[in-house]
Here is the input.
Amino acid sequence: MKLASTPSRIAVGLAELPTTVAHRHPAQRQLQSTVGRTLACRVARQLEGQRDTDYRVIGGGHSRPQLETSTASGSSSQIAISHCRRFACAAARQGDAGLGIDVQAVEPRNVYRLAGYMGWRELLGADIKDEKLAANRFFHLWTLWEAAVKCDGALLMSAVTPAFTALLPGLRPGVEASWSDGGYWAYSKRLGDGYWMSIISATPSGKSPTLEWLPSISYAGEIKSA
Here is the structure.
């Protein structure tokens, strides 16, 4: 008798950050990066149950981040990290399957031009006139695309990736949802009124993963502007 495989687990951590200086200020960017890496270590520790193990994130930037541990066995987890203005987030899952996460602020931009450049005008809504609605849909799409890029390990300038293409049939821009298609799973969530967060994972077993949320963190530290 063939035993049914159990769904994989994805541990997710989220932190809210202060914004006492401009969001592109080096001090703010450094804080976002540090908190994102700290979250990645926390979610991996939660997933692997190694409470006494020290974790450290290496790589990142234009390469996929990886974990180093204080044990000889190392880590069996894939991690993904993202941050934008008020939020930093990280996800971890065990095994070699791809994983991506992204968070973005919904902000005033010429989303019609950007959607045209990305080939998303039909996804955005060809006849949409409400600029606020258009921006909400666009930045939801953007988080899914960036999460797909990370999941597939694709080049950032690739407007189409296997994960994004596979998940398009079930996509409803601007709507919170969780769905699977074509060997991938996606989850999208609003963070308050002004942010979207999306997670994408490959699903080699064909089963949707289960999410395990760590308690959210509200970072109360000060950002030095010097």
About this structure: Residues 10-218 form a domain with the Ribosomal Protein L22; Chain A fold (CATH 3.90.470.20). The two ends are 65 Å apart (CA to CA). The first strand starts at residue 9 and ends at 16.
